[in-house]
Amino acid sequence: MRISVLDRFYSGDVQALSRLISEAENQSNGYQKIISTLYPKTGRAYKLGITGPPGAGKSSLVDGLVNQILKESFKVGIIAVDPTSPFSGGAFLGDRVRMQNLVGRKEVYIRSMASRGSLGGLSATTFEACLILDAFGKDFIILETVGVGQIELEVAQHSDTILVVLSPESGDSIQAFKAGLMEIGDIFVVNKADREGASRLAVQLNMSLELKRKEQKGEYPVLTTTATSGGGINELWQAIKKHRDFVTKSELFSQNRKRQLKSQLKRVIEEQIRISVKSRLSSDLDWDQLAEEIYLRKETPYSLAGRLLDSWRSK
């Protein structure tokens, strides 16, 4: 069955694409083999990360931006991450509602993914989903983060260009963003520019970015948009293309991609160790006896953990 799914995937079947992403997202048996099979066909797609606080209008911005990208005959994949409920484990997955103009466009694939407890603003299997979309032939992959503010730094581990989206209401939070989102952004967008305070926020952002521009010798433009009406969207797309040309024509692109891969390699190793340890822990250990030894102060959690690990290493 897997062979037929892959054959359908290679022929451009969207249902097969969804199936493979689901297998990766659910970490089904054999999903790593599928990723390994697809890996030689990856590396072409350009990844655009879009992050910022809740309510900044990220999804509406993606909707307008993708319509600009489609005018140049690019194929686009969108991964929109929604927060996971700590009670049910489910997610609202509402980004499709805010991207109605894109639903049904054959050049666009939208995938809503649950964060599943990941604190970096993305899903734990974002890397795998990107690889699958890349192998499917998408030219641009857009990653829209959950929208939880300063901790959303994981997007830097997946993106070639990072957009930080703020709204006029974010003006009082500039200092808080300096230590997080302000450091990873390549392009800064003040959305909802028709609201009071938008121009003031743009000025504050430009002032805050002066030191970064001098130290890193980058432009780090600040743009204003009104996504709901399309205002400033074309200018934003031009700025993205300019940054993409700059990055891909320099050593920054390969350096950034290698940095991303080092991070993902560490994550995969950690996941492999976790799976291995979990399978050992679910074996025939006498948990009651181990707890009794700790309770009687004959052992400590650390000494028992060390002893178990040593016994596993010797096998």
A few lines on this structure:
The protein is α/β, with parallel strands linked by helices. Helices cover about 45% and strands about 10% of the residues.
Tell me what the structure shows.
- The two termini are 35 Å apart.
- Helices cover 47% and strands 12% of the residues.
- Mean pLDDT is 84; it is low at 85-93 and 117-121.
- The chain has helices at residues 2-10, 14-25, 31-38, 58-70, 126-136, 174-178, 181-184, 198-216, 233-248, 252-281, 287-295, 301-313, and strands at residues 46-51, 76-82, 108-114, 140-144, 161-166, 187-190, 222-224.
- It has a seven-stranded parallel beta sheet, with helices on both faces.
- Helix 1 (2-10) packs across helix 2 and helix 2 (14-25) packs antiparallel against helix 5.
- The protein folds into four domains: 1-41, no CATH class; 43-249, Rossmann fold (3-Layer(aba) Sandwich), CATH 3.40.50; 251-282; 284-315.
- Helix 8 links the parallel strand 6 and strand 7.
- It is of the alpha/beta class and 315 residues long.
- The longest helix has 30 residues, at 252-281.
